[in-house]
Amino acid sequence: MKRQIASDCLQQIGIILVEPKYPENIGASARIASNFGITELIVVSHELFDRERMLKMATHKAAHVIHGMRICSTTSQAVAPFHLVIGTTARQGRQRLPDQTPREVMAEIAPFLASSRIALMFGPESTGLSNEDLDLCQFASTIPTAGFSSLNLAQAVAIHCYELYSTVQSHPFAAVPKSEFANSFDLEGMYEHIRETLNEITFLQDTNRTYWMRNIRQFLGRVHLKKKEASMIRGICRKFLWYSRQQLPALSPESHAPREKRPQ
What we know:
alpha/beta, Alpha/beta knot, Helicase, Ruva Protein, domain 3, seven-stranded parallel sheet, globular, disordered C terminus
């Protein structure tokens, strides 16, 4: 029973590669994902990659991952079905998510493995994930190194897949509850309503919009909102927007009184 639950958990995991440069890296990532029981591969790109070069690195054992690979034009489209997204990054900054090691991240998401779809997201080989990509994530994972922090894309995928696989295999699953958590599609709709509402009351300005929305995302991302909670927040925002956009109150009776004629 536990083995089947673990297998089902891995089937809910997705690997997202954002703007990869080399088809060989896609193929190698597919092979690694397949080694650890992960079959969903999503590539965010406007380019068409050489399938033969991908298949050569994937080998015949992971060819099914390449054949089933999904191509998305935007990162937000790629993460839409997932409840939790782990962004991998070597860069740090004040406005970025708190970085953890892959093992620390996997330990934190362990309680959600059986009931949530989870994505591991990797950025371009040369630059990594952008701040806008990381805004779509609830966790940031940084692989600790002795010095030079840059790793090959496939190496980074391998380390994260191994840590995730180990966590799945060791977690004491009892049952697979139906997911009640909001996925990225639900959350992005909620964030858009929050942004629109805060704009309406002029809380957000051109100079601070990114700062405040990033902080709001990070705060609500830690809460792990359920679908009904995200829907409730959207409902509050909709009601507030409706109320604020109603016509001005009717003129008071005094305003209807005839004006005195001014002397000529």
